[in-house]
Amino acid sequence: MGLFNVTRPASFLLTGIPGLERSHPWLAGPLCVMYAVALGGNTVILQAVRMEPSLHAPMYYFLSMLSFSDVAMSMATLPTVLRTFCLDARDIAFDACLIQMFLIHSFSMMESGILLAMSFDRYVAICDPLRYATILTNEVIAGMGLAVTARSFVTLFPLPFLIKRLPICRSNVLSHSYCLHPDMMKLACADITVNSIYGLFVLVSTFGMDLLFIFLSYVLILHSVMGIASREERLKALNTCVSHILAVLAFYVPMIGVSTVHRFGKHAPRYIHVLMSNVYLFVPPVLNPLIYSAKTKEIRRGIVRMFHRMKM
CB 3.0-4.6 Å disulfide test: which of 7, 18, 123, 237 passes with 217? Predict the structure, then answer.
């Protein structure tokens, strides 16, 4: 018998929000608005960075990477989420579910890596400003982007194969309107220790380490800023970090909330788990373009100039 010649369903059934099935058509409207803001806002930022010479700087290159990962994350979840809520079409093929699972986890890890790279950008800009241009060259930025992408692909490449080796015979109903590794492995009627250990290893070695290094970078930034004599200069330096700090909070706070609910909220209503997972996946792509557009005047100016050129 081959390694992957095991019992598995031809397809899975996706789930919206348990207990609120009658409200799904009403929830489809806000979901469409969120997708429109995420896709539209991040696409505008990508175009502004591409077209405006004033935004051809390391900080904005990293921002364009963040916008790309947000667009990709939204595109990875959009088909099944809207089919589930708008059309009540819950069926998804087994292999398609594996592909979606891989994409969602990959782009999520990619976003974490980009947030770490952006914290390094802020650290160099504040702690070693005279060498900023020589440290963060275009080649270095491109290398960091490739490293983040390669890490996501290589680290998560085993996940689909770890799922395919499991016999799935308990049920074919998933807990969300998209496919996630923890959700799929719980349906297996076999030992899932390897999946659980590898999932924890990935979580700690990537997301956990990224968050730790982001925290350490801001400790060093605060130490450097406190050494500035002028109060106005201290506030000016810290103000350049506000957008990034908000983006980090928008990404990691829902993630920590989801992990906490899954580990310690086993008796919480099922819709709480689903809502927390949806917040984790949908909120960062929506908030990031709003945060950077509101808090970064260079981005606002670049967007205005871009639209002005398009009208001419």
Answer: 123
Which residue from 225, 169, 162 is spatially nearest to 194, judged by alpha carbons? 162
Closest CA to 12 of 102, 101, 72: 101
What are the backbone angles phi and psi of residue 163, rounded to the nearest 5°? -75, -40
β-strands 91-93, 11-13: how paired?
antiparallel
According to DSSP, the residues that pair with 174 across neighbouring strands are none
- Residue 23 pLDDT > 90: no
Token look-up 């700090």 returns 245
Residue-wise pLDDT tens digits, 204-227: 999 999 999 999 999 999 999 988
Q: What are the start-end ranges of the H helices in the chain?
A: 24-51, 58-82, 94-127, 132-135, 138-156, 158-164, 181-185, 193-202, 209-226, 231-239, 242-264, 270-295, 297-311
Q: Is 233 helix (H, G, I), strand (E, B) or coil?
A: helix
Per-residue confidence (pLDDT) for residue 4, from 0 to 100: 55
The rounded distance, in Å, linking the Cα atoms of 207 and 91 is 31
CA 271/CA 82 separation, integer angstroms = 18
Are 277 and 17 a contacting pair, CB within 8 Å? no
Determine the 3-state secondary structure of 238 from DSSP.
helix
CA-nearest of 40, 152, 37 to 103 is 152
